[in-house]
From TrEMBL:
It comes from Periophthalmus magnuspinnatus. SUPFAM superfamilies: POZ domain. GO terms for biological process: protein homooligomerization; regulation of G protein-coupled receptor signaling pathway. Auxiliary subunit of GABA-B receptors that determine the pharmacology and kinetics of the receptor response. Increases agonist potency and markedly alter the G-protein signaling of the receptors by accelerating onset and promoting desensitization. The lineage of its organism: Eukaryota, Metazoa, Chordata, Craniata, Vertebrata. Keywords: Cell membrane, Cell projection, Membrane, Phosphoprotein, Postsynaptic cell membrane, Synapse. This is BTB domain-containing protein. Residues 10-113 form the BTB domain.
């Protein structure tokens, strides 16, 4: 009888191909008769495989699963510009038994094949002679979530915004807002991952990148959760690291 009454938590932790995701149970059950709906309605927690930390494990593409979750949350699909993994994402949609998502991916594939290539003037301004390249902006942050998961998370100030790129490109975009103290006197044709910005808000960095003709092409985030004590009523402290990749 104990196994029959065992239920899933309202907040579920998943390990998908080594990538950790945290989402609501209702999100996983959003599409009836899908694979995730079946797993989390027709089974008990002990029926599903878990990793060493007790997260429910799925041996699938961890990077592409973020788009599966986005679809389950919003019943819509918005992909980054120049997304190159559509065929692989379609395979994942088929695996998770999401026929409407598969249809959306087929439709978007047809549109992208018929649409003309967007000109550089349509994608934003770019100064004459400006070099093409990539800049990655990263930051570490932390926030707490209380016992009542319906309450707003308490975010702390972003500690430091880092810049990874070719040195000449970073100096062109950020100028004197760039702090070079951790990697000084480097030649302009070298690369660095040790610069950081004299900004307190990510949007300030995004504005500079947009003005220089850059567009975000990818982002990635990871987080860890810690407890101060074993008290289940204590707030959970999450620490995260996020990177945004921009291209011109």
């Amino acid at each position: 009888m104990a196994a029959q009454t065992e239920t899933f938590s309202e907040v579920v932790e998943l390990n998908v191909g080594g990538q950790v995701y945290v989402t609501r149970l209702e999100t996983l059950r959003a599409v009836p008769n899908s694979l995730l709906w079946t797993k989390f309605t027709q089974n008990s927690p002990r029926d599903l495989p878990t990793d060493s930390k007790g997260r429910f494990f799925f041996d699938r593409d961890g990077f592409l699963f973020r788009y599966i979750l986005d679809y389950l949350r919003d019943s819509d699909l918005i992909l980054p510009e120049f997304f190159k993994e559509r065929r692989r994402l379609l395979k994942e949609a088929d695996f998770y038994q999401l026929p409407e998502l598969s249809r959306l991916l087929d439709t978007k594939a047809e549109v992208s094949e018929l649409s003309p290539v967007t000109s550089s003037s349509d994608r934003g301004s770019r100064s004459p002679g400006a070099c093409a390249g990539y800049i990655t902006v990263g930051y570490r942050g932390s926030y707490t979530i209380g016992r009542d998961i319906q309450a707003d998370a308490k975010f702390r100030r972003v500690a430091r915004i880092t810049v990874c790129s070719k040195i000449s490109l970073a100096k062109e975009v950020f100028g004197d807002t760039l702090n070079e103290s951790r990697d000084p006197d480097r030649p302009p044709d070298r690369y660095t991952s040790r610069y950081y910005l004299k900004y307190n808000f990510l949007e300030q960095a995004f504005d500079r990148l947009a003005e220089a003709g850059f567009h975000m092409v990818a982002c990635n985030s990871t987080g860890t959760c810690t407890y101060g004590t074993n008290d289940p009523g204590e707030d959970r402290l999450w620490t995260s690291y996020t990177e945004y990749v921009f291209s011109r």
